[in-house]
Write a structure and sequence with these properties.
Elements: E1 6-10, H1 22-40, E2 44-51, H2 56-64, H3 69-86, E3 93-96, H4 100-115, E4 119-129, E5 134-136, E6 142-144, E7 147-149, E8 156-167, H5 173-182, E9 187-188, H6 191-201, E10 208-209, E11 211-212, E12 220-221, E13 224-229, H7 231-236, H8 238-241, H9 251-258, E14 262-268, H10 272-285, E15 293-297, E16 300-301, H11 317-320, H12 326-336, E17 343-344, H13 347-376, H14 390-411, H15 415-436, H16 445-481
Helix pairs in contact: 1-16, 2-3, 12-13, 12-16, 13-15, 13-16, 14-15, 14-16, 15-16
Bound molecules: 5'-O-[(L-methionyl)-sulphamoyl]adenosine.
5'-O-[(L-methionyl)-sulphamoyl]adenosine binds next to helix 1, helix 7 and strand 14.
Length: 513
């Protein structure tokens, strides 16, 4: 039996330090859509997400809420899970870094690195941002009135001095540079590569302090109870702890990591360097293969700028779902933002895009086509190639051409472009209806039947191309067309409706005001 290719896709694991907003939904939606697309392409897929629950920042939040750490994170994580359910986003594994299994494997990873000599004990002296869980040297930090601030987030830094274990990054510098240069798909979009090289790698990678002994909320190392593993090592490891790395039942790890075909980490731009520097080094030190691609997306901002509590412009997806279906919101996120750039989210834009693309274009195409077909035919509409006119043939050619463009764009992670191609095909089909005026052809049945069969095939093509995004909702269309599901391989088989009666059952997408 031929083995399917595998596709592993991950989201960042989110901090339960606050509620998730539409920016987090954006990250997760990209991963979910990629998973759906690859599944339709016949891959065996695995989709990982989770929560990053340790560290000083979370401990502080719990204290402020008068709760124990675990009580605090339990409640927050329940909200995450509720959100993904409401957003109709299904995943395979949700990893909590507070789970016993995750803790044990992280301890094993640390011990392995120590035994291999890539981690050593030393003294850490430097600046630390509690909010970002990140260390800086004085030269990296911004100094103002004798105080130091993070060059990235502007958060205040505190001076710390403590015993610490270190990961010997310097050992891997040359290898990492070569790896990044000889694997052009490792970091996408490509514009980030130079940024990473010039700002970090070429400046020289300092050894990374990977344990803390000034707080308790985290995973202690087995070698010394006082030392807690740095939260980024703990968090990054989720991508393999979820697959049972180092456990006897590691079938998923073998299948999706060791022998896997494609591994994609979806991450936001500010956490890209953790995934492109520390994570590859850890994997290399563990003698493990690299992910295929770190896919770095921009931020979602509002017309008032970056979302923040103080500006009061943080958009809660659960509030949006009261007005819009999750499909509409997810559609907006992946179709309107060029991956890698920041994108502006506004209620009005969402409304316009939803009405224009989904209701007036795609929804209308399905609705009017099925109305015409049901009016004139009580038996299946057959595809008879000898009845096709030039204009019918042109549309069939477009289906083929648009499908090729769509596949190429999707394969290159240009999801927005791929979706726009699907919507353009839908526009072409609507124009085709205007031009051919099928309602006036009741006395020219062969011509009418040809048009209707082209329309059915056209709808099938658009629906299939939109399926990775509109998944659940789109299955209603499949049902009306007389299919259980949509398959790319079926798009160009124009005889697929020959024995099927497509029936209009309900209005698929309602217009919103
Ligand atoms: N816990 C770490 C990730 C560890 S992964 C091994 C973390 N968590 S986070 O909750 O702060 O952010 C998670 C993701 O959400 C990041 O990829 C971040 O870029 C993304 N976003 C947070 N705000 C965002 C927007 N406004 N827009 C788009 N993405 C945003 O970092």
């Amino acid at each position: 039996m031929k083995k399917n290719k595998t596709f592993l896709v991950t989201t960042p694991i989110y901090y339960p330090s606050g509620n998730l907003h539409i920016g987090h939904l954006y990250s997760t939606t990209i991963a979910w859509v990629l998973r759906n697309y690859k599944k339709m392409q016949g891959y065996d897929t695995k989709f990982l997400t989770g929560s990053d629950e340790h560290g000083q920042k979370i401990a502080k939040k719990a204290q402020e809420a008068n709760l124990s750490e675990i009580e605090y994170v339990d409640a927050q994580v329940a909200n995450f899970i509720h959100l993904w359910k409401e957003a109709k986003i299904d995943y395979d594994v949700f990893t909590r870094t507070t789970e016993e299994k995750h803790k044990k494997i992280v301890q094993t990873i640390f011990s392995t690195l120590l035994a291999k000599g890539v981690i050593y004990i030393g003294k850490y002296k430097g600046l630390y941002s509690i909010e970002d869980e990140e260390f800086f040297t004085k030269t990296q930090a911004i100094e103002k009135d004798g105080e130091f601030y993070s060059p990235i987030s502007n958060h205040k830094l505190i001076e710390v001095e403590q015993d610490s274990y270190f990961l010997e990054n310097s050992k891997f510098e040359k290898w990492l540079l070569e790896y990044i240069e000889s694997n052009p798909n490792f970091i996408i979009p490509k514009k980030i590569v130079n940024e990473l090289k010039n700002n970090f790698i070429l400046k020289g990678l300092e050894d990374l302090s990977v344990t803390r002994n000034n707080f308790k909320w985290g995973i202690n190392i087995l070698e010394n109870q006082e030392h807690i593993i740095y939260v980024w090592i703990d968090a990054l490891s989720n991508y393999i702890t979820a697959l049972n790395y180092s456990l006897p039942n590691d079938e998923d790890f073998q299948k999706f990591w060791v022998n896997g075909d494609e591994i994609v980490h979806v991450v936001g731009k500010e956490i890209t360097r953790f995934h492109c520097i520390y994570w590859p080094i850890i994997l290399k030190a563990l003698d493990l293969r690299m992910p295929t691609t770190v896919l770095s997306h921009g931020w979602l901002i509002t017309p008032e700028g970056k979302m923040s509590k103080s500006k009061g412009n943080v958009i809660d997806p659960l509030e949006l779902f009261k007005e819009f279906s999750p499909e509409a919101v997810k559609y907006f996120l992946v179709s309107q933002i060029y991956l890698g750039n920041d994108g502006v989210f506004s209620y009005d834009n969402l409304l316009n895009v939803y009405n224009a693309n989904l209701v007036n274009n795609y929804g209308n195409l399905v609705s009017r086509s099925l109305t015409i077909i049901n009016k004139f035919f009580t038996s299946p509409v057959k595809f008879i190639s000898t009845n096709l006119t030039e204009i019918d043939q042109e549309i069939l050619d477009k289906i083929k051409q648009f499908l090729n463009e769509y596949i190429e764009d999707f394969d290159n992670y240009q999801i927005d472009k791929a979706i726009k191609t699907a919507i353009s095909l839908s526009s072409e089909l609507n124009n085709y209806i205007e031009k051919t005026m099928p309602w006036s052809l009741k006395d020219e049945l062969p011509k009418l039947e040809a048009i209707c069969s082209v329309l059915l095939n056209g709808i099938y093509a658009v629906a299939t191309m939109l399926h990775p995004i509109l998944w659940d909702k789109n299955l209603e269309i499949a049902q009306q067309l007389g299919f259980e599901n949509f398959e790319f391989e079926q798009i160009l088989n124009f005889n697929k409706f020959d024995n099927i009666i497509a029936q209009k059952k309900s209005i698929f997408l309602e217009r919103k005001k």
